[in-house]
Write a structure and sequence with these properties.
Layout: E1 9-12, H1 18-28, E2 32-38, H2 57-60, E3 66-71, H3 76-88, E4 91-94, H4 100-103, H5 108-114, E5 119-124, H6 139-145, H7 148-151, H8 166-189, E6 193-198, H9 199-205, H10 208-217, E7 229-233, E8 238-242, H11 249-257, H12 271-276, H13 278-289, H14 294-303, E9 308-310, H15 314-319, H16 321-325, E10 329-334, E11 337-342, H17 366-372, H18 377-385
Parallel strand pairs: 1-2, 1-4, 2-3, 4-5, 5-6
Antiparallel strand pairs: 7-8, 8-9, 10-11
Helix pairs in contact: 1-8, 6-9, 8-9
Length: about 400
């Protein structure tokens, strides 16, 4: 089967999450991704401290469909290998601070002269120019400086951090978009270009409704303050529901909960008043929900097509029949055993994502990649003996 990115060569200098989730996505759809790592320890994610034996699941989650090249990039012979790969590459991706690759002689200005068709992609904490260009970035900083933590906070409450790295994932997927746009533009112009995003920009963009409301009214808008939405405790757990896409949501909800029509109460007669008196309304709704089980409330809400769902743990979500039907759990063989991982959320009817290679062991494909560049076996042996490659 021909995949959308067959024939696209990607040189991947990324590590941890933002960059690797980008390059894994490219690999899922056919790109030949060469993951370049330090010969001694490799990607930082290989060594994150978690209580398991064997290859780190954090690394396994982000690096399938890649070939592994491990070398000491500070050695002249290693740099020569990198330059040969750059000359053949369509895309180079990194997520270092903006000056790191330049110091290594691998910045955009240096490489675009070697390969004018190169799409040079990078992600950082705050962007490659501007007052924070040299500042190190990490997911928690992206959430904090974008206002996202305060958007997630209760009114007047302390900031709330999402425990999964949402700014890393968002920026990584935006970087995929930037690379694909760069490749499309190259088809028209014949030239490559520099493309980039940042943790900060991704998190600002993810709040585009709230931000645009503030920019044009000077007032705060927050979906989290809408009382007819969000999780509510039941007698045996939690459910989520939202009174959207219906003309009289509060009246309809009250009919299910067995409450008098609270929309006739002056405190809750309009959306604005419901938000103003949100804590009072939430208390009344919450008290009613606690009287029955989640399953019973879901049945009653679904009978009137009121949007609702159970609140799962991640373990429960991974076993849900819709999640399995959507192929969001995939399995593949790895040198250290069978691996289960998260599948691609992007579905194409004719050219779907595939798992062709497991995440590489450190330097697993050194010999294969060097042979493709024309290095004879005896020279590869010498490079390994000299510590140029692993």
């Amino acid at each position: 089967m021909t995949l959308p990115l067959d024939g696209v060569r990607v040189l991947d200098f990324t590590q941890v999450e933002m960059g690797p989730v980008c390059t894994q996505t490219l690999g899922d759809f056919g790109a030949d991704v060469i993951k370049v790592e330090r010969a001694d320890v490799g990607d930082i994610a290989r060594g994150k401290p978690i209580p398991v034996e064997g290859e780190n699941p954090i690394f396994l989650s982000l690096n399938r469909n890649k070939r592994g090249l491990a070398l000491d990039i500070k050695q002249v012979a290693a740099k020569a290998i990198i330059y040969q790969l750059v000359d053949r590459a369509d895309v180079l991706v990194h997520n270092f601070r903006p000056d790191v690759m330049t110091k290594l002689g691998l910045g955009y200005e240096e490489l675009r002269h070697r390969n004018p068709r190169l799409i040079y992609a990078h992600g950082s904490g705050f962007g490659p120019t501007g007052p924070y260009r040299h500042k190190g970035g990490q997911d928690v900083l992206g959430q904090a400086m974008s206002g996202m933590m305060m958007t997630n906070a209760p009114r007047g409450g302390a900031p709330v951090k999402a425990n999964n790295p949402i700014s890393d994932f968002t920026a990584g997927m935006l970087l995929v978009q930037a690379i694909l746009l760069g490749l499309l533009a190259r088809e028209k112009t014949g030239r490559g270009q520099e493309v980039y995003t940042s943790l900060l920009d991704g998190m600002i963009a993810s709040q585009l409704q709230e931000a645009t409301y503030w920019l044009n009214t000077g007032r705060e808008f927050n979906w989290g303050h809408f009382p007819l939405g969000g999780p509510y405790p039941t007698s045996d757990g939690y459910i989520a529901m939202i009174g959207a896409f219906r003309p009289y949501p509060l009246r309809d909800l009250c009919s299910v909960l067995g409450l008098e029509d609270l929309s006739e109460d002056p405190r809750f007669s309009t959306t604005e008043r419901s938000i103003e008196h949100g804590q009072e309304l939430k208390a009344l709704i919450g008290e009613a929900f606690r009287k029955q089980t989640s399953a019973e409330w879901l049945r009653l809400l679904e009978e009137i097509d009121f949007l609702c769902s159970p609140v799962y743990t991640l373990a429960e979500a991974l076993e849900d029949p819709q999640v399995r039907h959507n192929q969001m759990v995939v399995e593949f063989d790895h040198p250290q055993g069978r691996v289960r991982a998260v599948g691609s959320p992007v579905k194409l009817s004719e050219t779907p994502a595939t798992v062709r290679h497991p995440p590489p062991l450190l330097g697993e494909h050194n010999d294969e990649i060097l042979a493709e560049l024309g290095y004879p076996p005896e020279q590869i042996v010498d490079l390994r003996a000299a510590g140029v490659i692993r």
